[in-house]
Amino acid sequence: MRPGIDPTLYTYWRCQECGVISLQPLDDWSERSRHYTSTYRGYYRREIESSLLQRLSMAYGLQKRLRLVERFVAGGRLVDIGCGGGDFVNWSTDRPYWTVFGLERVPAMAAVAAQVASGVVTLGDALHLPFAENSLDAVLLWTVIEHLDAPLQGIRECLHALRPGGVLLIRTLNSEGWGKHLFGPHWLGFDAPRITTLFSPTTLQLAVERCGADVIHIGAHFHDFYPYLWCINNICRQHWPAGVCDRLDRALASLPVRLLLQPFLMMQTATGKNSFFVLAAHKRL
Ligand SMILES: [Zn+2]
């Protein structure tokens, strides 16, 4: 559990039948939304990041995400659901072949995103998409599905808006990654009440196929460096003031530490046991 949250209030349960891990109790969005402040780590933005190394790393991640989309669909209308501060929308909005939209359900972040990518960001959530049936070529749920009240309903809503043959790209936490075993209760996936649902590649594939799409790809793609920093920060904050932890965070994010860990991270990515995985699916024709 995250520092500052009473661990006796929440429990993550694994379903005996399907293997999906769910948070109980699941508070209303009005309660949970209070935990999405602009300092939430999931909302870190490239533009206001002070470290050059981190900015470059984030730019690399955005470019990699766009390339990944383009492996499966050449262009068209793309929506980034849960776009946060709009980093990806801003990154991809003036590319040829793409018309990009962003959707964000936290008003403060939607406002930030609207500033960096004006005219294409809407306040709204994955369960009620403001797009017509069959009107999109690609939908991104990038570290979003684990936050939804009803993940399957979210997948169905995305598929409804996608054209047949369009691509749904989901990046989410891996409940079978090494990070969960390594960090136990301090793993970034056990982040109540924000994280409601934890999938593995197997359980998400089952869910997506049940909703009417064909899974065409599953991969790790992004090394676990920042997820691990997040976990270490969680542990640090149990014992030390936030300022000390943030200084440690910056020290660990340095190039030498990164290079030192690189062989381990590459090996982990090769085995697909990262804290996050990416799944791509085609809406059935
Ligand atoms: Zn189940």
Oligomer: single chain
Quick check: average pLDDT?
93
The major pleated sheet works out as: 7 strands, mixed
CATH topology: Rossmann fold
Derived from helix and strand composition plus strand pairing, the structural class reads: alpha/beta
Overall outline = globular
Count the strands? Answer: 10
Give the total of domains.
1
Strand order of the largest sheet: 5-4-3-6-7-10-9
Q: Roughly how many Å apart are the termini?
A: 42 Å
- Tell me the CATH superfamily: Vaccinia Virus protein VP39
Q: What's the tally of helices?
A: 10
The SSE string, one letter per element, is EEHHEHEHEEHEHEHEHHHE
Q: Helical amount among residues, as a percent range?
A: 25-40%
- Supply the CATH architecture: 3-Layer(aba) Sandwich
Summarize the entry for a quick read:
By secondary structure, this protein is α/β, with parallel strands linked by helices. The protein has helices spanning 29-32, 52-72, 87-92, 107-116, 151-161, 178-183, 201-210, 225-239, 242-252, 255-271, and strands at residues 11-14, 21-24, 76-81, 98-104, 121-123, 136-142, 162-173, 197-198, 213-219, 276-283.
